[in-house]
Amino acid sequence: MCGVTGWLDWAEDLRLRGETVRRMTETLLCRGPDADGVWLSQHAALGHTRLAVIDLEGGLQPFAAGEPVRAVLAYNGELYNHRELRAELEAYGHVFRTRSDTEVVLRAHLQWGHLAAARFNGIFGYALWDHLREELLLVRDHLGIKPLYWHRHANGVLFGSEPKAVLENPLLPAELDAEGIAELFALPAAPTAGHGLFRGLHEVRPGHVVVANRRTVRELPYWRLESAPHQDDAATTLATVRELLADAVERQLVSDVPLCTLLSGGVDSSAITALAAAARERNGLGKITSFSVDFPGSADRAPDAWRTGQDAPFVRAAAEHIGTVHTSVLIPDDDLLDARAAVLRARDRPGWGEMDASLHLLFREVRRRSTVALSGEAADEVFGGYPYFHDAPALASGTFPWLHGRTTPAALLRPDVRAEVRPAEYTAAAYRSSLASVPRLAGEDPAAAKVRETFHLALTRWLPALLDRVDRVSMSVGLEVRVPFCDHRLVEYLWNVPWELKSPGGRPKGLLRDAVRDLLPPQVTDRPKSGYPSTPAVRYTEVLTARAHELLADPAAPVFDLVDRELVRRHLAEGRPLPSPRTAPNPVGGLDHLVQVDEWLRAYRVGLR
User: Fold this and answer.
1) Residue 392 burial (CB count, 10 A)
2) Alpha-carbon distance 495 to 489, whole Å?
3) CA neighbours within 13 Å on the CB side: how many for 15?
4) What is the pLDDT of residue 295?
5) Using CA atoms, how far apart are residues 252 and 261, in angstroms rounded to an integer?
6) How many angstroms separate the CA atoms of 523 and 345, rounded?
7) Does the reported pTM lie above 0.70?
8) Beta pairing, strands 149-153 & 156-160
9) Which one in 117, 162, 340, 369 has a CA-CA gap of 20 to 30 Å to 205?
10) Distance of CA 134 to the CA centre of its chain
């Protein structure tokens, strides 16, 4: 996996701005520690940092085709069907000089134009400069697994895999306006698709391509979900899900570097690990390596609504049954505190605090032995595993179901800021806009239509935030995480499977559980959902509480340009937890958000507009 960045400018000669492009590129060295390069022309410049996974010698970038140059590509991603596409392109007369999927992407565009991505199965966020047509393409994968940001300036476009690369160019100052404040405080867990938080910064939306030329900049869809009656019976549906998932896993095992799985002991990650182990055995390869995360004292922690029990017993059962080479990574609370700055730099925004920090530390340990990891992320979104799918009041709440009964950090905004931002109105408008984009099925009964809406909200509002978190935290240590449940063929199929087949007998994710039942021990297959673990450490909370009191005593603390200082003071004095950006119950989440926002405003020198 890699980092891409660049600059399109119709007024400047970018051959003279190489130093700026190199600085933009250097911000992404964590994403690509193996190689880096810059390509400059009069109006377009591309930068690239490489994490070598396929064709270690032949995949150097930016990658140019033609003599003279016809097109240049800076590519971040993996094509899981690149072999089939290569054969198809060779039949059209294309001659390849490498084994890399990078060259397949470039030649696919030469053959099929800007909608070539519709033929891809993979994860990607890339930039292609068509030198002859003088046209820039920015393309993102179907579900938004790989990030890609862009900013339209007066004479062109800036872009990068992460905001830090775009912000390195002086054409985009780090500023936060009312819309960004609303995203940060009212919708922190599920931001608006395409919104880059910083003023003027956008994300290429999943399944879209941004086309920029001298005349215009426009964003076009190449893929979207389509609603249609589901024709398969229960047995056929079960078999099809198993076949699609097994194929997705096997395709994603292709790698020229060490590969592993992330195993939490839940049905999602265990299914991926079991299918990976079976595929490796069929192909005569060794045992799969797996990793899990744990904390000191977790065995003494009482279950709650989010964590139904500790992971360790289920991890052991799954690892022993599947036959993995397993490692449990133990993370002390002091390490979590030490990781905070690295995580903020990785995400370029306030995130999920200690949950991000522990993920960073897990990935750092995994990276010592593997370069690629398969994850069970997204199963809850595509199979309907979250509690709100089964919560009638949440579904009928008239807002994003994960916000039902919750108070967001927007409650802490200063009265003057709240009047400007209007967080409740912003959230309501975002919800209405999300519902308006749901592909409806004619004649569908109201209950089924409500479930379809909920799946669409999960896939288009909640999932992108989770995928961004995983990508940014993993790539900060040079680890590529693959997510087989996001295979767009599987998502397309499940989109139209009725709720009674996805959740037979009311069992959450019953369809998935039944599809992999033969691969796992019963206690793992039937384990209730248990969320990503948070630390039980008291010290973490104590340190953040002390930091919050330091902020209250600091008259220049920038967070209080947004947040009501006295309201925070009263919460702390009364021992009440601050409103958290997370959906998971966690008393430290609000403290984390407050302190992180202050750290972010300082570190990125964010101006308020």
Assistant:
1) 9
2) 10
3) 3
4) 83
5) 11
6) 39
7) yes
8) antiparallel
9) 340
10) 31
